[in-house]
Fold these 2 entries.
Entry 1:
Amino acid sequence: MSESKIRVVVAKPGLDGHDRGAKIIARALRDAGMEVVYTGIRQTPDQIVSAVVQEDADVLCLSILSGAHNHLFPKIMKLVHGEGLDDVLVLGGGIIPEEDQPPLLEAGIQAIFGPGTPTGEIISYIRDNVRER
Amino acid sequence: MAKRTLDEWEELFRAGDKRALARAISWVEDRDPRGEALAARLADRPPTAWVLGITGPPGVGKSSLVEQLALRLLDQGNTVGVLAVDPTSPFSGGAVLGDRIRMQRTVVQAGAFVRSMGTRGALGGLARATPAAIHLLGAFGHDVVIVETVGVGQSEVEIVKSADTSVVVEAPGLGDSVQAIKAGILEIGDVFVVNKADRPGANRAALEIESMLQLGLETLDWVPPVVQVSATKRTGLDEMLVAMEKHRTHLEESGTLESVRAERRRAHFFSALHERLEELARDFTGAGAAGELLAGVAAGTITPESAAARVMPCFELAPAEVEEAQDAA
C-alpha cells in the first residue's frame, strides 16, 4: 500500500530576513498534505542544495524579497543541475519584477509566484507538475 | 529524464552517492517495495554504526544539541547520519519539518547526512520507517547515526528499541521531583542532559534526576551520568560527548552491545509484523461469516472485544504466500 507524500524544501536564500510569506507557504503546503522542510532564512546555495539532496525533495520553493534574485537564483540552479537534480520542481516567490523573470525561467525556475498569489494556486501547480519518483 | 533502475540506484548507493541514500529512505517511508528490495541487496553491508537516540520534551533544545554533537563527532573524523523526526498532522497528513533549521553547520559537511522525517501517524516518538532508515544510514557506511525523536514528552520510549545509547534531554523549570519519578522517558536514559544550564534551576533539575536514579541504584549495572550543558553558550558539550562515549564503551566491554543490537533487529521484525497485521485489519471488509460478527457489534449484541477474538480464524494466510515469503528470504 503506497503512501507517497510530496516533499518540499522552502528556503530563503541570501540576507533577506522577511520570512512571513515563506512560513505562510510552508503551512499551506502542510495543510495540503505535503511534507515541508523549512530551512529558514540566510541560506547559502550550498545549504539549500544539501537540503534538496538529503531530503529527496520533489519541490524547491525559493523566497526572496531583497532583490538579489538575479544573482542568487541562477547560482542555486547551477548547483542544482550540478547535482543532477534535473527533475526537481523549482519555484520562485517574493518580489521578482516581471522583467527579471525570463532569464530566471531560462535558468530552470519553472514558475514564479508573486505576493498575493492564492496558496491554492501554488498547491495545484505543484500537484500538476511534480515528478513521479 | 529516464527513470533509474533499481540496479542503477544500488550502484549509486554503494558508491556513496547521497542522492541514492535519500531516495532509499523515501522508498521505505512511502512503502515503495524498492525500499525493501534494496535493503535486502545490501545484506553484505551490515551496519556497525553507533546509534544515539536523543529524546526529551518539546523545546528543551534537542536539535541544537544534535548539531553540537554532530560537529564534534565529525571533528573526530566520523561520518554522521542524522534523522530528525517531527509530527505529521493527523488531519491533513502533512508536516512542517523544522529540526534541520537548527543544524545549519552540520548539513554542509561532506561526512554528514541530515534527513527529516514526519511521524506519519506513528506514536511513541519515531516514524514507522525510522528503524529501516537507521539501517540504511548504517549500510551506507556512517560511523554514527543520531536519531532525534519528536519530543512530545513522557511516553516517547520507542527510541530505546532503536538506539544503542539513549539520551534524555531536560531543561530547568519543567517539573519537580514528583515529575521526575513518573514513568516514561526518565526510565530509559543511559545519559541525562540538562540543557539551558545557564538558566536558574539547572542544578536543581540535575539533582532531582540524580535523586530519582539513586532510588533504583541496586538494579543498575550502568549508572546514568547527569550532565549540564548549554547548546547556545557552548558549555558542557565535550563532557556530554565523553559521557555518551563512556556508555558506548560500557556496552562493548560488558558484552551487551551485540545483544542490544540483536534486540533491535527483533523489535524491527515485530514492528514490521504489526504493520502487516494492521494492513489486514484495515482491508477487512467483513465478508461472509465475519459479516455477521460485525453486524452483531453494530447492533450491540456482541462486544467489540469478543467479536475481534472470534474473527481471528477468518484471517487465513494462503499457503502459497508463506512459501513465497520463505523463498524471498
Note: Chain A touches chain B at residues 1-5, 7, 26-27, 29-40, 44, 46-47, 50-51, 53-56, 83-87, 133 (CB under 8 Å).
Entry 2:
Amino acid sequence: MDILLYGVVLFPIFAGVLLLLVGRELKPVRRYAGLAVTSIAFLCATGLLFVGEHDLLLPVSWLPGAGEWSLYIGGIGVIALVVTVGSAWVTRIVILATSTDCTPELDAIFLIALGSAAFAFLAGHFLARYLALEIVALCVAAACMVQLRSDAGAQAAGYVYLVLRIGDAGLLAAILLLLGAAQTLDVGPALQSGMGLGAMPLAWVVGGFSLAGWVKVGAWPFHGWHRLGVTQLPGVGAWLYGVLVPQLGLYLLYRVTPLIAFGGGVASMTVLVLGLVSIAVTVTLWERASRSVVSLQVYGGALLGSLGIAFAATGFTTGVSLLLIAGAFFRVGIYVWRMVPVASTVNAVPAAEAGVSTPLETVEQDALGRGLVGAVRGIMSGAQVLHNTVELGLFERGPASMGQAVIAGARTLHSSVEQGGLENLLHGTARAVVAVSHAVQRIHTGKLRTGMLWVVLSLLAVVLLARAR
Amino acid sequence: MNMSLHAAAPLAILGVPLLVSLALILFARYLRRVSGRLAGAAVALSLILTFALIPILRQGSEPVFSVNWMPLSGISLRLHVDWLTLPFLATEVAVTLMAVIYAWGYHQVDERTPHFYALLLLFAAGMSGTTLADDLVLFYVFWELMLLASAALILLWGVESPGGPRRERVALKYVILTHLGSLMVLVGLLVLYQGAGVDSMAVLRAGNWSIAPRLVVPVLTLFFLGFSVKMAIFPLHLWLPDAHTVAPMPVTIMLAAAMLSMGTYGILRFPFSLFSMEQLAVFSLPLMIAGLVSEVYGALIALVEKDLKRIIAYSSVSQMGYILFGLGTLTQVGVTGATLHVIFHAIVKALLFMTVGIIIYRTGKRNLDEIRGLGRSMPVTTACAVVGGLAIAAVPPLCIFDSEWMIFAGGFETGYIALCALTLFGSLLTVAYVLRFTGRLFLGEPLEEVQLVRAPLAMLAPAVVLAALSIIEGIFPGGVLDWVIHELPLLLKGAW
C-alpha cells in the first residue's frame, strides 16, 4: 500500500519539481515523461481500490493542538481519486495526440497539482487537506500566469487566487471552530463533535464549509474563475480549472455533508435556498449563452456544482457522490470534445467570448461578474479614499496643519505680545532708565549743575530784589 | 556586583556591541575600512552567546548580572535572561546581523562609515538592553537609547525621495511621537516603582508589590498605549511610514523587523507578567478590536500605496494588528501565536525590505508605477520576494501561516466568533496587496529598457538566507515554538 501511496502522491510532486528544474533539457521526452508519470499515478490510484478501507496514521504533527495527520483509504474518496487521476491521464493522452504545446513549467504545475490533489482526496485530517488544497490553488493561479504570459495574465492569476482564497478562508474558519470543539482535526471525529456545537457556532461552521465548497465547485456566483480558466486556458489549464478543482470541491462537500445537513436548521436551509437560487441562475445564464461546447463546459460544470451544494444541504450524500463520479466523466468528456481537432468548428470559443481582450473580461460577461469585479474596484477606490482622507488628510496633513497653525499662532504671539508688547515695554523701560541715568549723570558731571547754579542764583537775585523793594 | 560565568553572558551580549561602538567612534579614522566587519563580528559574537544561553535555560538556570547602583533608593542595575527574554533577544540580534551584512553592500564607505556602524551597534544595544534589563531604570534607559540611536541614523543618513519629506522633519516627528509613547510607559514604570519600593523586576515578578486597585486600569492603559506606539498600532502608527521610508535600508530592516517587536516584548514583560488574567480581562475585547482595525487599515493603505518602502511599511502596521489581536485573546494558543508571529514577521519583513532595497539599488526607482516585469532580469530577487510575499500572505507551509493559525485558533476560543471571522477574512486584504506588489514588480513585460546595476553579494545573500528560513521555520516550527512555550508559565501569573 505504501508504494501505491507514494506512486499517486509523492511521485507526481517530485517529478513535477524535477521537470521544473531540468525540463528544458528534457524537451524531446518531456511530454512522454508527463504521460508516464500520470499513467503510474493512475495505476497506483486504481490499485488503492483493492486495498480495502484503511485509516493510516502519518508520523506528522505539524502545528500544536492539530494532532497527527492521517489518511483515509477507502470509500468514495478513493473512487473520486481514481476518476480524477483518470481524467488527468486522459488529458495527457489528448495533449500528446493533439500536439498541444506544453511548457516545462506547465507540466510541472500539472504534476504538482495532481499529487497534491491526490493527497487532498485521501487526507483524513483537516489541516492536511487544507495544505493540499492551498497548493492546488497556487498551481491553478500559476497555470494562468504561465499560459497567458502578460500583464493581463498576471492580473487574471491574481483574481483567481484571491477568489479561491475566499473559499479557503471559509474552510479555515470552519476547521478552527471544529478544533475548538473536538480538540482534533481528524475529519470523522471533528465532524461528529461539530454536531454538538451550539446553534451559532454550528451556523458559522456550516457557512464556512459551504463557502469553501461553493467556491471550489465553481457554482454561481463564484463561477467567474472557472469560466476564465475553461475559456482562456487550453490544455493543462482547462483540466485544472474545469475538472480538478471542481472535483476537489465536490469531494469536500461530500465529506462535510452530514454536518451541513445536520438538524435541518436555519444554516442548512439557507444553504439549500442559496443552492437552488444558484441552480436557477445558472440555467438562466446558460439559456442566454451561445450554444457551444464551451458554454456546455462552463455552465454545465457550474450547474453540477450548484447541484452538489443543494444535495449537500439536504444531506443527500449519494447525490453528491454521483455528481463526483459521473460529473468527472462529463467534465473530461467535454474537455476531450473541445480538444479533438475534428470538432474544432464547434470547439472554437464563441465570438461573444472570443471578443474579449483580457481574461478578466470573461468574468464580466454577466451582471454578477461585473458586480464582483466592480466590488473589487470599489474596495480599491475606497482604500484610495481612505488613504487620501485619513492617512494623508487627517494624519499626515492634519497634524502638519495643526503644527503650522500652532507655529503661526506662536509667531503672532511672538510679534504682538512678546516683541510688540513685552519686548517694547522692556526696551522702553530700559531707555527711560538710561535717560534718567544720563540726566543724573549730567548733574553729576557739572553741566546741569552749572545750569542749575545759574537758575538758583537767578532765583536768589529775584528774591533779594523783591525784598529790597 | 554579582559576577559568575553565567552572568558574563548577558553582560557580554550587551557589552561587546557597546564597546565596539565606542571604539568605532574614538578610532574612526583608523577603522574606516574595517568598521563594517568589526560591527558584524560584534553582533555575530552576541548571537553566538545568545544561542549559548539556550542550554543554560534548559537546565533551569536564569543568568543574572547585577550591580547595586543607588542602594538607598533601591535602584540596582540588573541584566537577566529568562524564556521570555530569549525569543526577542535572539530575533533582535539575528536581524541586526542580517542588517549589518546587508549594510556591507548597501553603504558606501566614506569618512562617516565608522559612525554609521557605531550608531547601528548602539541601536542594537538599545534593543538588547531592553530585553535583558531586569530593572526599571535600565529598561527605560535602553528603551530611549533605541529611539535616540535610530533617530540619529535617520537624521544623518536618511534617504529623501523626490517630493517626500525631509529627513530632519521625519526624525523630529519620529522622536516626538515615539517619545510620547515612552512617557506613557515611564509613568507606568514609576507607579510600579512606587508600589514595589525598588526598581527590581525580579521583585515585581515575585509579587512583592502593590498598587491601589483604582490605579490598575489606568496603569495598564498607559502601558498598552505606550507600547502600542512602538508597535505602530493604528492610529498610533504615524511615525512609522515616514521613518521606514526615509531611513537607510539597514536601519529600516532593524526598525521593521526588530524594533517593532519591542512593543510586544513590553506588553508581555509588564502587563502580562505582572498582572493577573482577571485584571487584564477588561482589555481583551478592546485589544482584539484594535488589532483588527490596525490589520485592516494597514492592509488597505498598503493596497494603494505606490512607494515600495511605504507598501512594506504599512504591511508592518497590518501585521502588528495580528499580534495585538493574538495578545488580546488572552488564550494560551493566541498569545503563543502572537509571540511566534513576532519572530516570523521579523524574518519575513526583513526579507521583504531587503528585496525592495535590492530593487531600488539595481533600478534606481522606487515607485510601483515605474517598474514592471523584473522577474526575468532578477530571478534570485524575484524568488526571494515571491517567498516573502507568499509567507506574509500566510500561504502554508510558510512560517507566518503557523503563527496566524494559532492566533485565529485563540480568537475562536474566546467565543467572539464574528470578530475572529472578520480578522480571518481581513487577511484576504494581505493577499490582495501582496498580489499587487509581486504581480506588478515581477510579472508581465518590462515598461522600458532598464539599466540594472549589479547588486553586491552582501545584499543578496542575507535575503536568500531569510527566504530559506521562511520555508524551513514554516515546515519545522518546533524549535522556535519550544522557546515560546517555555515563556507561558511566566505570563498571567501562571493562569494557563
Note: The radius of gyration of chain B is 22 Å.
